[in-house]
Amino acid sequence: MSQMPQPTALTKCPICEWPLASDDRFCGACGHDLSAVPAPPADQPTITMNGTAGDAPDEATPVDWPVASEPSTDTPAPLVRPADIPGTDSGGGDLPGPGRGVRFDRHPEPDEYPLAAPLPPDPRTAEPATPPAGTKVCVACRAGRVDRDGYCENCGHAQPRERDHMELELGAVAAVSDRGLRHHRNEDAFAISSTALPDGSPAVVAIVCDGVSSATRPDDASLAAARAAGETLLESLPRGTHPQQAMHDAIVAASTAVNALAEEPETAAEHAPHQNAPACTIVGSVVTPSLLVVGWVGDSRAYWVPVDRSAPPARLTEDDSWAAQMVSAGLMSEAEAYADQRAHAITGWLGADAYELEPHTASFKPDRPGVVVVCTDGLWNYAEAAEDMAEAVPLDAALRPLHCAQVLVGRALDGGGHDNVTVAVLPFPAPPQGAGSA
Amino acid sequence: MANFSKSNVPQFSVEVYQNEYLPEGGREVNAIVTVSATGGGTIGSAVAAPHLYSPGQGPSAAVAIMVDCSGSMDYPPTKMRNARDATAAAIDTLRDGVHFAVIDGTHVAREVYPGGGRLAVADSATRDQARQALRKLSAGGGTAIGTWLKLADRLLASADVAIRHGILLTDGRNEHESPEDLKAALDACAGRFTCDARGVGTDWEVKEVTQIASALLGTADIVADPAALAADFTQMMESAMGKEVADVALRLWTPVGTQIKFVKQVAPTVEELTARRTESGPRAGDYPTGSWGDESRDYHVCVEVPSAALGQEMLAARVSLVIPQPDGSAQNLGAQGLVKAVWTDDMVASTSINPQVAHYTGQAELAQVIQQGLDARKAGDMDGATAKLGRAVQLASASGNADTAKLLAKVVDVVDAATGTVRLKAKVTEADEMTLETRSTKTVRVKK
């Protein structure tokens, strides 16, 4: 931001010849006040010798006045301003008056500080002091620049992070993850990949994990689990491990990865409101030309939706949750159980504080083509029954898995987006691999 | 090879303790900001941080000692003698090369040493001369502290030094000038030098002494027994000699639409800073913190942010440390802390109170109820005093503030500390009451 106090460009104390540093204000040996000495007339060095790099003063101006040069109104350069679009009146006709007569909606708050600097140029006539290339403008207020910490310099709002919305498509498989509308960060993660079995037939893999919010670093837990499981499958499937066994191993590997987080110092360092070992759920699916394998721990799910909608869809996983346990024990009907406050309390998860790791896996041989929807509860809360899920899945899901995943995430957001949403879509049977995708 | 580009400014670090989670519609964000300065190079860090100065030297400094010489200092006569000895002890503690002066304070201020509107530079000769000059100190006259401070300011300004500090001793009320005059003098001196203030005996006004220390960012204390003055003066001077950087300000940036509810220092003492803000740029303001040596202080920052939707996260304040320069710019000391707000529908997260915030909220209340309790007691409101001091006992005991608890026990009989049940003592010495009042703002840090 601001420059150091004007350094005296002396290399030696004029009184005692003691060597000086550029930012000394007094001689270290005799105490002589160096600022009293006029600096040599020529060429004042402007190199900053200390490490704190300023805010990239790429202009040649000697003094950086962030206040005056900032566009203090609401029109950063790259935006379409109201005046750029011909306005119409409520009847649809042209507006009266000169074409450039559109006023800006200024921010309601008054100028807080009467600046001594001249008024900023009229943004309609002069290009607003273009933020230097690469300057990010706040997505919340559209007025402030984004500082190095990722917060707006004007309204303070955090800027979207990479994980807030992620999309990935790899040949036949696609996944979309979104922060949702109520949570401040995306604690879901996914991993998708495709590989080949030893006989050369394709295998498509999708892993989806949901971080447990009440634990520390849930976002790191889900990411670590998804990565570890995905990598384990990519290693074991080409070696000929049975996909169901491979899925089991992958969940164990994911669990190890999450457990390892608990020992990291960052876990203790985070000032979280509650300190719990990092934890997450996991659900994964492997699809080959003849086999469909799912594996899970927790309440993230996989659904089977056949291409021919006259055939029944199905849920392929059984939640490790209070509600599911109540139902399976015959203590409550499904409707009663899911209406209960405790419905979503999970009884199984990956994490150092899990009671006992019980990876569930299942293997299916569907007799017809379809898609597997692998998702977190952020989606299935809005389409719990297999029939509802099937209804939400577009008819061309097997051909356009990314589009299908986007549609399903959109459905969750339309429903309220109360949680992070992550959806992976895998067509069955796994299509032969395209050229080049090893 | 010595690193000549290293200045002697200590390394500052900032840590923020808060619960950033707010419920839907929540607006108030509280945070405790711990600021630590280390490795400046004068005290105890000569090995760790080699610097320009030869041993025994520190940053250039100037100190003015203001000794009350009003007539009351002769009652008892030991008071004057002890003040003289204490001043001599303080002068002995001066580092070689430090500029200094001694001022004799009555209803006017007079230079005792070296005189002529100058400052002496400490060495063995000047220390001797100063001690000789102290013999001339004698009691007689009134008390007008504003004049002492103004003279100290003039003298301190005559030397071009990094650290300017005053030590002020009084034994009586500031009777020979109006409170407005003192206030005006304090306003004129604020930011120009720091000053520790001491009251000796029990005939002085606690609020006057704490007002001086507060305005000039120094410490205030009582020295009830004049014999303890020398030790106290030595300790004060040692602390002054340990200062390495002056005029440090806490800079607070807050986003548009945010209201700062308060900023206060909460450790080592409670010091309200909210009203002392100087605007320093768009949405930023500076709060003075005075001089720093190797030390650590805590600040409580409370801001009200515009409410945002669930799931949103924003920066509620950015805290940094700067040295404002006369030309309006500022030297940034490099450390910063972020105070955040995150809206969540997780009730467990949004309703928990950060332990540091809770602790210092209690310490600030402790200082406040002691003051209110003593005021009520003076006004004859015994029920009010019992209630307030009872609450103080409860807070002091719960937070482990043992020093304050001991002082309270001299003013009230504690029946049950946990519930704050107390009885006012029938007879309380003036010294005990004044000690409690003067030290009521001392806090303890949270147990980790």
Strand content of chain B: 25-35%
Number of domains of chain A: 3
User: Average pLDDT value of chain B?
Assistant: 89
Q: What integer is the average pLDDT of chain A?
A: 77
Topology-level CATH name of the largest domain in chain A: Phosphatase 2c, domain 1
Q: In CATH, what is the class of the largest domain in chain B?
A: Alpha Beta
Sketch the major β-sheet of chain A. Answer: 6 strands, antiparallel
- The number of helical segments of chain A is 9
Radius of gyration of chain A: 30 Å
Number of domains of chain B: 3
CATH homologous superfamily of the largest domain in chain A, by name? PPM-type phosphatase domain
The assigned CATH architecture of the largest domain in chain A is: 4-Layer Sandwich
Category by helix and strand content of chain A = alpha+beta
- Strand count, sense and closure of the main sheet of chain B? 7 strands, mixed
- State the end-to-end CA separation of chain A: 50 Å
CATH architecture of the largest domain in chain B: 3-Layer(aba) Sandwich
Give the SSE order of chain A as H and E letters.
HEEEEHHHEEEEHHEEEHHHE
Helical proportion of chain B?
25-40%
**CATH-level-4 superfamily name of the largest domain in chain B:** von Willebrand factor, type A domain
Name the pair of protein chains with the most residues at their interface, and give those residue counts.
A-B, 52 and 55 residues
